[in-house]
């Protein structure tokens, strides 16, 4: 017998057996993790699940860069000859009924009292189209999709937009445009967006969405509520940046994947 060949063969057999056993152990552990019933666990904490939980997912690592504005850009988009007052943290613009606060060069808070005109906003469709045109005229409609619409008394409307990453179709949390309107036009705007999305080397994953969803038990606002939607989005939390003294002034960062949980009252919870 050629003992050298037999020894080599035995090594390969042992390697095969080890790989098989590790694979079997992984499958059993995966089933044990994935197959537990989350519904009674949540109900024990006064939370009802009425949505499908997404599958595990792996996506590209993204660097997000906030859209920043200069005072001159704001004047060109919203005003003719406003009075401007600036501090290191903000700039305030005022012209007639129009006023705007620019916070840390990236967040816009705008108000106006539009005069009556021939154009009347009477329906939700009217409001959505008018809001989109308002943003488009000011070059603020970058990858924005209508996410929520609210109609209040006396023909007052709110149209909420969120930014979507084009390749994945995932929402980019912390980017938004909330447009307030009455029958005469736009009465207010809250706006913050990302101007650039850079794909970096590496991947980010949500490997166990069901177990991650259990984190909602620790969220006080979820008590007594119903979960009506669970999805995956990119989530940029500036407070996770280790080297930024004032997180409000951060202009870029790495986005992680998170579970986006929507409650029946419209509240959204990010579980990263």
Q: Provide the succession of SSEs.
A: HHEEHEEEEHEEEEEHEEE
**Overall morphology:** globular
Mean pLDDT: 85
What class would the helix/strand composition place it in?
A: alpha+beta
The major pleated sheet works out as: 14 strands, mixed
Low-confidence stretches: none
What does this entry look like structurally?
With 272 residues, the protein is of the alpha+beta class. It has two domains: 36-63 and 198-271, Lipocalin, CATH 2.40.128; 68-192, TATA-Binding Protein (2-Layer Sandwich), CATH 3.30.310. It is 24% helix and 40% strand. Strands 1, 2, 3, 4, 5, 6, 7, 8, 9, 10, 11, 12, 13 and 14 form a 14-stranded mixed β-sheet that branches. Strand 8 (156-164) and strand 9 form a beta hairpin. The longest helix has 32 residues, at 3-34. The radius of gyration is 25 Å and the shape is globular.
Quick structural overview:
This protein is an alpha+beta fold and 272 residues long. The protein is built from 5 helices and 14 strands.
Structural descriptors:
2 domains; Lipocalin; 5 helices; single chain; alpha+beta; TATA-Binding Protein; 272 residues; 14-stranded mixed beta sheet
Task: Give the secondary structure arrangement, pairings included.
Elements: H1 3-34, H2 38-43, E1 48-49, E2 57-66, H3 71-78, E3 83-86, E4 90-95, E5 98-103, E6 107-111, H4 124-137, E7 144-152, E8 156-164, E9 171-182, E10 185-192, E11 194-206, H5 209-213, E12 226-235, E13 252-263, E14 268-271
Parallel strand pairs: 1-12, 9-12
Antiparallel strand pairs: 2-11, 2-13, 3-4, 4-5, 5-6, 6-10, 7-8, 8-9, 9-10, 12-13, 13-14
